[in-house]
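Possible regression after last week's pipeline update?

I re-ran a chain I had predicted before the update to compare outputs. Posting the input and the new output here so someone can diff against the archived version. Not blocking, just want to make sure nothing changed silently.
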Amino acid sequence: MRYFLELRYNGAAYCGWQRQPDMPTVQQTLERALTTLLREPVEVTGAGRTDTGVNAAYYVAHFDCTTPVEDPAQLVYKLNFLLPGDIAVGSMTPVAEDAHARFHAREREYRYFIGPSKNPFTRHLTWQYYVPLDVGRMNEAAAMLTEYDDFTSFAKLNSNNKTNICRVRQAVWTIDGHGTMCFTIRADRFLRNMVRSIVGTLVDVGRGRYTPEEFRAIVESRDLSRSSAGAPAQGLFLSDVRYPPEIFEPQCYTKFKLL
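New output (post-update):
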C-alpha cells in the first residue's frame, strides 16, 4: 500500500533531506518515526533534495507498507508526536501503487526571503541584508531566466547531473509592507544549489555590481565561475510541489506563509 505525506520542516538542524551516514537528515528522521509506528522497516521517497539548512514550507514524500493503515489521520497524529518540533506532517493520503513523489512532480516552487534590517525573530528564516537593493533591476534580470533552459552557470560542480536543462516558468521579486523581499521561482526541476546561486547573483545586480545585461551574459556563458556566491541557506524555502490531479491533489499547506 502506498501513501503520500504532506509535510513541512525547518532545515536548520539537518544536513538536507537525503539520508547520510552519521549525519542528521529529514528523510532518516521521518523513516525512523514511521518504522517505529508501523513496526516494519519503512523507506521514504521525497519530491526532491533540499540542501543543508534549507527549509520546506511544503514538501511531499511517499512510502509503502505491507498492510493498509486503518486510520491515516490517527497515524499523522502519532507521527507528529514522535517527530521533533521542526518537522510537521499535515496529511497522509492513499495513492496508486505506481504514484511517485519525485518522478510524477510536474512543477516545483522555491521562495527566498531577504530582510532589510536586523530582526532577531526572523534571523533564522531570512537573509538579513542591509545594503539597499534596486528591485526593478533585479526583476528585469530575473525575467530573463524564463528565456533560457541551460542553467550550467548556476549548477554546483560535481553534482552528477545528467542534464543542466530546466524550464523556468516564473521568476519574480516582490516586497511586502515591512520591506522584506521575496524571490519566487517556479520550474519543472532545479539543480543543486541553483536557486541560492541565482539569488546571490541577482542581489549583485540589485546592488549595482552587474547590469541586467551582464546577468544575461552570465546565464549564456554556461560558466559557474561567472556567477556570484550562493545566498545563505536559511532564507530558502521549498514552497510548492505540483502533480497531475490524477496522481495527487494537495490536502493541506496550500497557502505559503513565512510565519
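Follow-up from reviewer: compared with the archived run. The chain has a mean pLDDT of 94. Marking as no regression found.
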